[in-house]
Amino acid sequence: MALCEAEKTFVLHGVEENFRIDGREREDYRPMELETNIVSHAFGSARLRLANTDVLVAVKIEVDVPYPERPREGKLEFFVDCSANATPDFEGRGGEDLAVEISNSLAGAYRSPEVFDLTKLCILKGRKCWKIFVDILLLECGGNLYDAVSIAVKAALWDTRIPLVKSVTVDGNNIDMEVSEELHDCQKLDVTGAPIMVTVCKIGEQCIVDPSAAEELCSVGALVISVSRNKFSTILQTGSGSLHPQTLLECLQTGHKVAQRLHDALIETLVDIKPSENSVGFLR
Amino acid sequence: MSKNRELLSKIGLRLDGRRADELRRIRCKLGVFTEPDGSAYLEQGLTKILAAVYGPHQVRGNRSKAQHDAAVVNCQFSMAVFSTGERKRRPRGDRKSTEISIHLRQALTAAIKTELYPWSQIDVYVEVLHADGGIYPACVNAATLALIDAGIPLKEYVCACTASLANNDVPMLDISHQEEIIGGPTLTVAALPMSGKIVLMEMSQRFHVDHLQKVLEKALQGCRDIKHILDEAVKSHIQDVGSSTGWANTT
Amino acid sequence: MSRIRETVITNCERKFLMKCLSDWTRLDGRSFDEFRPLRVEFGKDWGSCYVSLGKTRVLAQTSCEIQQPKSSRPSEGILNINIELNPLAAPHFEPGRQSELSVRLNRLLEKCVKDSKAVDLESLCIKTNEKVWALRVDINVINHEGNILDCASIAMLASLAHFRRPDVTCDGEEFIIHSYQQRDPIPTVIHHYPVCITYSIFNGGEFVVADPSLTEEGSADATLTIGLNGFKELCGLHLGGKAELMPHVILNTVTKATHRANIVIEEIKTSIKIDNEARTKKLPLGFHTERKGGANSDVSEISLHHWQEIKKSKKKKNKQKPVEPTESPQIKVIGEGLAVHVPQEKPDRQESWIVDSSDDDLMIVEKPREQILLHDSDSEEENVIILDSSQRND
Q: Domain Exoribonuclease phosphorolytic, which positions (chain B) (predicted)?
């Protein structure tokens, strides 16, 4: 996608007037559709469609050995795959750079123990723990990937059910685990602290949230702010431009405010989703 | 793994309750995405496939690939890491995915009127979201729908189907993952169902040569059945799209 | 890095080929259902096998090592097949890189042998969940003159059937791998012998040509590869290329292939038998030994081009070296533009001119310096216990 000068000016003026090309105001999000539990092979899954951005997240769980330096903690791993369905540029290994960037920023945002408590994933200290794979599949890119991914990941983790370990018997080197056979015997993860990322995009003199693909092209730089509960978890500056300290503060304030709103809306939606509902997926 | 589980019970039902010549339920939707020129989503049983088509456009990357008399068809098959029971390490790049990409290109090239687009390229990307047997046929069927959605001229639908042999006698249609594991031989056929021409054929495991004819016929029958289902889907999609622009009379 | 492009088949060649086919002849004078001469030879090591099909040559070597089994199949051994297309075979092959062709060939071979369960993997298990034998067949294409697949499948199968792994015993905790001298090595259990048979299809099924040469392969609409074993069972089938075929063409071709499969399997079995007999008699082994009574040593094919050269050289030869005309080889004219060169039985094999000697053994025959005895502790085979530890884990 490429924009000509005139188009860029048009976008810029729209932002200036607080009336963006799709009619939104500067702090408005595009419509979102969220669906959970749509991948039956996974322990938890979610699909988020933010206008044209489409993200599918599935959570898989394996039993693993904890890191020797952190024997009381489980493991959490993010893997992003940019599907060539999104754009032909992602063919082969073309999407790898973007994928690594997103998965690294997610790993960073989830690193703090206040954000996501890994000790709950420990089964037997130093010997056994759960390893959570969060696999993210980007199916369509319509701007604002970070926000979409973070919301989808949060929803998928919310949906995740970890099997209940009934008993662990240690016999020398052998560890036997008895996992409950009951389908409903499972524990859920606490995701209230899971960070939400908000991309605040600087266009001209103004800052906007949820940039569309066209708006992303017009911006000189963006700030990806991840907010967990009331605190900032990580802040990442992308793009080539620089930010004035004053602008930075304004961005942070905007991001914080928006993230709070998003978090509340998301939790409200997730509680509302009925688990028994038949999944519709892509057939809608 | 020769477990004594029968692929076909005495009363003629399979493990998932189907009859021998019954397809799994196929549900599909055209135009799931806006960014690609054509896209489709197809469910065949539990196997779920997303396909996207870009093009025809200028040849990307290595220009020497361009052909003066036909379009280059480029296919990439990839499987989401969570699509199988055990988590996959890589979504693509292994031998099986490369093989499916090659086979996909073969089947689609046979159906696309490539001679209409010299010096250009058509990209077909297929993503497996859930693998439950018969991945390749489902990919071909999904890709056909995506090509139709993209408006690329085809000679006719290209459909693919698997067939197997139960109890060394009865041919079965559309093999599920469970049946693949138990060890029925699998014959995969991609065909142009209207003219009855075979564009790709592939087989794994083994059965006696004498059975080939009936298994092949069964697979071709499957291709024809699938064609009808896809045709219905395309017609209803066109009607939906057409009605929103106001030319069709939807009552 | 510049790479050598594949030689394209020109339109002239293609047209000429098609014209020949419509006259029911082939460029090398074979009939449509005729295969090129097949030859299977074994090297000194177990599982080392050299197969030539016409001018296509393939070398296969089976090796083994002990591995942990896959968690999904704890009581089964592992079989890896790897085909290597290096520039030795054809200049456009890139070394070390997986090309589309190599992936396709590899998958077909895997399907033929692995999916049809020809090798008894359970017999390769040493201890469930802990140790199994992992067999690995490395197939190197030495010369590419069309139809690598048939040649490779024969080489792979012969190599597997010929291979013997060292015996292993377990005394409680430890596993002992016995050297070939301590205990007789164990052959691999093979349930059935699946081989690939390839046909090229021209003109949408009008002409179906067995065992295509390089030119035929390149200009064909499609290739149909049929995996078959001795019990007339299909073990893999692949239709590649850009043809649209009617089902009856495929069915007819498959029927034709069954006959050929038996011949090939018989050839593999007899070759192994001859080799085993030679081993028990402690005859010299290996590729350097001359194989007596080779099936194809008496008739070597020559192309039209050579025939003309021979005519010329004959005249020259008479001037240079007076040779009795009665001793010169005969050239049988089979048909229009076709000839077969039949060398006369000569005890010392002195030939004053070189024919296209694809099937004549021109290897220098050395007198074996020492006889290698199988159970001799001094023999070179003692240090074969370390089994290709450098191999890549797939």
A: 22-153, 157-221
Pairwise CA distance, residues B52 & A282, whole Å: 13
**The domain spanning residue B233 has which CATH number?**
3.30.230.70
Separation of first and last alpha carbons in chain A: 28
Cα atoms found within 13 Å of the Cα of residue C348, Cβ hemisphere only: 4
By residue range, what is the domain housing residue B157?
26-245
Token pair for A212:
């569309």
Cβ neighbours for A89, distance < 8 A, ≥ 6 positions apart = A95
What tens digit of pLDDT does each residue of C99-129 get?
888 999 999 999 888 888 889 998 898 888 8
Residue B251 lies in a domain: no
Instruction: Give which of C148, C147, C169, C151 is closest to C159, Cα–Cα.
Output: C151
Chains A and C touch (3+ CB pairs under 8 A): no
DSSP C323-369: --GGGSPEEEEEETTEEEEE----SS---SS----SSS--S--PPPS
Q: What is the CA radius of gyration of chain A?
A: 20
Give me B93's structure tokens: 């790049």
User: B51: buried, middle or exposed (CB in 10 Å: 19+, 13-18, 0-12)?
Assistant: buried
Contact by Cβ (8 Å): B240, B248: no
Tell me the C-alpha distance between C183 and C165, whole Å. 11
Contacts of C106 in chain B (CB under 8 A): 95
Q: For residues A114 and B138, give the distance between their C-alpha atoms in angstroms, rounded to a whole number.
A: 45
For residue B126, list its beta bridge partners: B51, B77
Domain boundaries, chain C: 11-192+256-297+370-384, 298-360
Question: What interface predicted TM-score (ipTM) does this complex get?
Answer: 0.88
Q: Nearest-CA neighbor of C76 among C156, C116, C130, C112?
A: C130
Backbone angles phi, psi at C221, to 5 degrees: -70, -40
B81–A81 C-beta distance less than 8 A: yes
Q: Which CATH code for domain C11-192+256-297+370-384?
A: 3.30.230.70
Sign of CA dihedral C367, C373, C377, C381: positive
Q: What is the pLDDT of residues B94-133, one digit of tens each?
A: 888 999 999 999 999 999 999 999 999 999 999 999 999 8
Give the predicted TM-score (pTM) of the model.
0.83
How many domains, in total, are found in chain B? 1
Q: Are residues C258 and B209, on separate chains, in Cβ contact within 8 Å?
A: yes
Cross-chain Cβ contact C235/B196 below 8 Å: no
Q: Which of C233, C254, C256, C393 to mutate to test the interface with B (most CBs of B within 10 A)?
A: C233
Is B52 a domain residue?
yes
Given a contact cutoff of 8 angstroms between Cβ atoms, the answer to whether C220 and C201 are in contact is yes
Domain contains B33: yes
List the domain boundaries for chain A. Answer: 5-283
In a domain, B200, yes or no: yes
Distance CA C242, CA C224 (A): 11
Pair of tokens at residue B153: 């001229």
Chosen from B58, B128, B129, B149 to mutate, greatest number of chain A CBs within 10 A: B129
Phi, psi of A250 (to 5 degrees): -60, -45
